[in-house]
Amino acid sequence: MTSLPSCSRTILSLFHNLSINSRKFDQIFFKKNLIGKHFLCTVSEGTIIFDRETKRIQRNRAAQLDDYDVCQYVKDEIAYRVADKVFDLTKFNDICIDIGCGSGHIATNLIKENVGVIIQCDMSAGLIRRSRGAADPEVPVLSVIADESMAPFREKSADLVVSSLSAHWINDLEKWFSRCLSILRPDCPLIGAMLANETLYELRIALQLAEMERLGGIGLHISPFVRADDVGSLMSQAGFGMITLDTDELTVGYPNIFALLYDLQGMGESNALRNRSAHIRKDILIAADTIYRSMFSRDDAPCPATFQIVSFIGWRPGPLMPKPAKRGSQKASFKDISKFVEGKVSFPDDHNPKIGKE
């Protein structure tokens, strides 16, 4: 996401008079259905964008922070949503593999009615050690320390694969989706979420303007993110069927840019671009904070930060895979939705299959 200098804590200490731990937890805003709205260039196959070893080190450092749990609000929220989709499945999942599990954000929401065994995989040993297991103590949780971009599991070994806010750091997403497909048994789903291209656009703009003003150029401080509609194309190319996508925008209010940078480090989400800028000058950060406030400040949030989330579900094809309803099989029309909501008509039923009476 964003670059934080190696001496980040030293820099933050220079601004000890600024509050960095007063996030607006009571002010989180959502925007729905944004697929296809924005554009971002793509890269050629085989291009190495992210330094995976740097990302492993960042995650391990984050896991060592005393206030690690305080910084996990975004990951906890999105993991809850992924787990909520698991509850919508009508089938029981004997083996669930969580790829890029972090400290076990998804597992803490799953119970024995959903899954039999959870296998967690992450390249950060520090985060794995922080895992608290499943919400239900009767669900065993096994941990594997391995690079989640390789998805190192046997073919057709899982009934469910989940992933939350990890895949946006993978260099070859098409290959990763193909590996996830191979792990799944027929008629079984992949359910996940990742950051999309509008994430932290406010921070990106503020840093770019500050550097242009003082340096006459810009550095690589914000990672590129995948376009939401590209995720569907990649999953389709990998072989998934019945693909479902949706996007949300989660906006968190921060008192200043330094609080945002600190929390990104605590999430293990500092910049890991292979060709990232080595550092950010102190005067650039101060200028960026001023620009951020002048351009994006709101009454309820001096520095609002946007996290755009693309959620996805895809099924490995099989004879029992869910299929879309036949055209014309609906019992009601979209034009009648307002009547249902207002209670002017009853919902369709077996006795009156088309539409209820007013």
Automatic annotation (TrEMBL):
GO terms for biological process: methylation; mitochondrial respiratory chain complex I assembly. GO terms for molecular function: S-adenosylmethionine-dependent methyltransferase activity. CDD domains: AdoMet_MTases (cd02440). GO terms for cellular component: mitochondrion. Residues 97-187 form the Methyltransferase type domain. Pfam families: Methyltransf_11 (PF08241). It comes from the Eukaryota. Signal peptide: none annotated. Gene3D superfamilies: Vaccinia Virus protein VP39. Keywords: Methyltransferase, Transferase. This is Arginine-hydroxylase NDUFAF5, mitochondrial. It comes from Brugia malayi. The gene is Bm9759.
